[in-house]
Design a protein that fits this description.
The chain has about 110 residues and is mainly α. Helix content is about 85%, strand content about 5%. The chain contains 3 helices and 2 strands; from the N terminus they run ααββα. It has a two-stranded antiparallel sheet with strand order 1-2.
Amino acid sequence: MERAEGWARVARTSGFQELMRKKKAFLIPAVIFFMVFYFTLPVLTAYTTVLNFEVIEGLSLAYIYAFAQFVMTWTLCHIYLSQANKWDDLVEKARHEAAEDTAEEGSA
């Protein structure tokens, strides 16, 4: 039971609340963008002929779009990593606040 109380104490800290707010603000739009970009290729190739246009002999827009998905995935990964590094400061802030709450409860 003590472990659950510790997690509840961390969840109440302002640092943790700010961390969750910032993570949601980044992750929800990133996931929506990824899903739309990813599933657009099979939808366009299955139901339209838009991607059949040949840019160069034997290289259609479908191949370019498929390659762009690899680029998008790696780019999104790098953006996520840079954001996650910023979130580390908020994790430390939440730990520090939770530790202060524990110390205050112990001295009271």
